[in-house]
Amino acid sequence: MCRAYHMACCLRKALFRLFGFYMGMVFAPNHKGMPLVPRSATIDFLRRQVMMSRNIRGSRMLDTAMGGLNYQLQHHLFPSMPRPHLRHAAPLIAAYCREYEVPYTETELLASYAIVVRYINRVGLGERDVFTCPLAEQRLHPTPNG
């Protein structure tokens, strides 16, 4: 009994971690690295939604794996639109954005992950070189106080 309970708890933890990783891989490519528009900025609804999100191009398999969230722009503009229709709305919205000169961002899945990694490195590391060791730098270039 105790062993089965322990294994069930371990399986539950593993599934939660896997699900969290999966959800991160679905949500991060759509927003991370996109410009942030302050709430105080006077910008219309369309521009606010389109400028702060990106679409991920792909096949119907990608649509299924991402739950339709690869059409993030359409999802933000029409949140109650059924998922299968997001794919059909994408070219219409892209054409409308081109006509009114609204920046419409769309990329491939792997390219979006590269954008996310660059963004996280830029924000987290403050533009520092990721391959330098802080302790080695401190020893090579000591500060007057330390």
From TrEMBL:
A Pfam family this chain is assigned to: FA_desaturase
InterPro entries: FA_desaturase_dom (IPR005804), Fatty_acid_desaturase (IPR012171)
Transmembrane segments: none
Domain named Fatty acid desaturase: residues: 16-107
Keywords: Signal
The keyword Transmembrane helix is annotated on this UniProt entry: no
Source species, domain of life: Bacteria
Signal peptide residue numbers: 1-28
Protein name: Fatty acid desaturase
